[in-house]
Design brief:
alpha/beta; binds S-adenosylmethionine; 313 residues; 40% helix
Length: 313
């Protein structure tokens, strides 16, 4: 375990995020690189995203926000015959990896790219009403209540009629990463931050899981009508050791995007959390369907929300 943590001692926050998200969450099966070993979230939400991708018209414009390193290209987007991908991702390491990955797929064109955080990004005017699909895959953890509505309104503004925003996020009120963030701020005695997190999660579920975002968008874009549908899925994370589950907790609200030094304390608290709260996160040895081996599994339920832009009747 010490070895695994050593790599974090001199890491920046961006490097730590990469080690948690890309190296553990996004671990692939060597025999079948389309399959993820570290979580079932991907295979679970792909069942909903794949039919949307299959129904896109010729040469669609896709706007991937909080795009990460673009794993979704390898598992799904490369199946499109032609498309232009516009990217927004504030972590330079991940943006470079995404752009590099796209080079493997000459039929996928790179469109605009922005290293700004979504809430600070200037909307590319030429894309307003042009985008077929905006993807927000496990990235909304970085918004407060106000930023969530305003960022989604910006993405909605980019959609053409019939275009969709596909959002997926962990239900932090129940998930391992959400409970880890609660535990961390409790240990630090930061009750204000804990309360704020709970309030953000409740708002998120009200706007997305319960569809409340529709009336906000309809008020702001009076010529269109937003149709919102949501699904709740029980999903899981998998790892070989408790220390890896602790590292995986560094994403979600505990993940920061900057080049400041990573604080080791965060990791130690996450490890204590995994040991002390094992039953709250459903920690158990279970068979990983991909590797067909026993691994440690913890709860990571997620919500999928699809927002479609329609003409107001
Ligand atoms: C869990 S990762 C998901 C990456 C990618 N969407 C995927 O599913 O593979 C969350 C991403 O959100 C990015 N992010 C963090 N804060 C952000 C912000 N304010 N605006 C946009 N993206 C942000 C992170 O850098 C990270 O790449």
């Amino acid at each position: 375990m010490q070895n695994q943590f050593t790599a974090f001692e001199k890491a920046t926050n961006n490097q730590a995020y990469k080690m948690a998200f890309n190296d553990l969450w996004m671990r692939r099966d060597k025999k079948n690189p389309e399959k993820f070993i570290g979580n079932t979230q991907r295979q679970d939400f792909l069942k909903y995203l794949t039919p949307i991708i299959e129904k896109l018209g010729p040469h669609p414009h896709i706007f991937d926000f909080g795009a990460g390193a673009g794993e979704i290209v390898d598992v799904l987007l490369h199946k499109l015959s032609k498309a232009t991908l516009h990217l927004e991702e504030p972590n330079q390491i991940l943006m470079d990896a995404y752009i590099n990955r796209l080079k493997k797929y000459p039929h996928l064109k790179k469109g605009s790219s922005s290293l700004e955080k979504l809430q600070n990004m200037e909307l590319p005017k030429e894309l307003i009403n042009q985008v077929d699909l905006a993807l927000g895959l496990h990235m909304i953890y970085h918004f407060d209540e106000e930023e969530l509505s305003s960022s989604l309104a910006s993405m909605y503004n980019l959609l053409k009629v019939g275009g969709k925003i596909f959002l997926v996020y962990a239900d932090q009120e129940q998930s391992t990463t959400g409970l880890a963030a609660q535990y961390y701020y409790k240990q630090l005695g930061q009750d204000k931050t804990r309360n704020k997190l709970q309030s953000v999660w409740a708002t998120r579920n009200r706007l997305l899981k319960d569809g409340g975002i529709a009336s906000i968008l309809d008020k702001r874009f009076s010529e269109f009508q937003a149709s919102v549908t949501s699904q709740f899925l029980s999903s899981y994370i998998f790892a070989d050791q408790k220390s890896e589950i602790a590292i995986m907790c560094l994403t979600g609200e505990l993940g920061t995007v900057d080049n400041g030094p990573f604080e080791m304390d965060k990791l130690h608290h996450c490890l204590n959390f995994v040991s002390e709260k094992a039953s709250d996160i459903g920690l158990a040895v279970k068979k990983n369907e991909v590797t067909q081996q026993n691994m440690l599994r913890a709860n990571q339920p997620q919500v999928i929300t699809v927002i479609e832009k329609k003409v107001r009747p």
